[in-house]
Amino acid sequence: MTDQNLYQILNIPEYSDIYLVKKSFRQLALKYHPDRNPDPLVSEKFKTIVKVYEILNNPTLKQNYDFRLKNGFDKSVIPSSFEESASDKLKKVYAQRRRHQKEMQEVENITKYEKSLINLPFIWRIVIIGLVHLTGILNILNDWYQTGNKIALGIFLFILSSLFLWNELYKYFWYKSVIKDEEKYSRQAYSIFIIVFLVGVFTTFSLIKLKKVCQLKNFGKVIYADLDQERGKLSYSYNDEYFLMDIYNVPKEFENKEQILIRISTKEPEIWEYISGY
């Protein structure tokens, strides 16, 4: 490797800055990584790329190499500016090692993610998450006016699917940002997640409101109900079934009344509304 121009190995111009060195290394490492290509010759190529990167990604070693490259690798020419203490050298070695491990870990993470996409493509992951998300919304909608456990299940599924959605969006756009080397993709994950989450919340409460309107319009029936404002309770009976509902805001016209008229849904009697002006 000493007889080769290190910049040529990375397919970049001589004296390129470290940013371009990192970018080229990532692309070549993905191309020649042993997990992606088991060919022994490719494995040797990968080792060479790693060794080159260890030199050109280190500011001090790169500066030294650039100086030697510029002077035709004349060993007699050694700039005094490269002299530094042993402790400084040791610190730089450790820092460089950490940076190198981080870069290698990123390459491995990209490889693992690409393999996982083969087993389950990104679009199918979003479809599955969307179905769980929809199931959560329907459970909330179906049990919103009742006292069952489907609301809790629906909220759990809604939150769980939201977390999975964020995880998948983050990994997908992180992958695109690394491959294309553009930060704009990483920002898209936040934007899309916030939009989808808010749309989900808005859709849920809109459907709850729409359900009440449709139920009372199509299956509405006016009945008498008992109002206990001290306990914050409204009670009524329908088809020999007793209903006790919590109330929070009582219209002023009903403040001194113990019995009022309400409209309920004969299909889902838990859905009700005040009848004003009777």
Structure summary:
Helix content is 62%, strand content 11%.
Write up this protein.
This protein is an alpha+beta fold. It folds into three domains: 6-119, Orthogonal Bundle (Helix Hairpins), CATH 1.10.287.110; 122-215; 220-274. It contains eight helices and five strands; from the N terminus they run ααααααααβββββ. The chain has helices spanning 6-9, 18-32, 40-56, 59-70, 86-119, 122-143, 150-180, 184-219; strands spanning 220-228, 233-238, 241-246, 259-265, 272-274. A hairpin with a 4-residue loop joins β1 (220-228) and β2. α2 (18-32) crosses α5. It starts with 5 loop residues before the first helix and ends with a strand.
Radius of gyration: 33 Å
- CATH homologous superfamily of the largest domain - what is it? DnaJ domain
Point out poorly predicted stretches.
none
What percent strand? 5-15%
At CATH level 2, the architecture of the largest domain is Orthogonal Bundle
Determine the N-to-C terminus distance. 95 Å
Helix percent band: 55-70%
Q: Give the number of domains.
A: 3
Order of helices and strands: HHHHHHHHEEEEE
The main β sheet shows up as: 5 strands, antiparallel
Mean of the pLDDT scores? 83
Number of helical stretches of at least 4 residues: 8
Structural class: alpha+beta
Strand order of the largest sheet: 3-2-1-4-5
Fold topology:
Blueprint: H1 6-9, H2 18-32, H3 40-56, H4 59-70, H5 86-119, H6 122-143, H7 150-180, H8 184-219, E1 220-228, E2 233-238, E3 241-246, E4 259-265, E5 272-274
Antiparallel strand pairs: 1-2, 1-4, 2-3, 4-5
Helix pairs in contact: 2-3, 2-5, 6-7, 6-8, 7-8
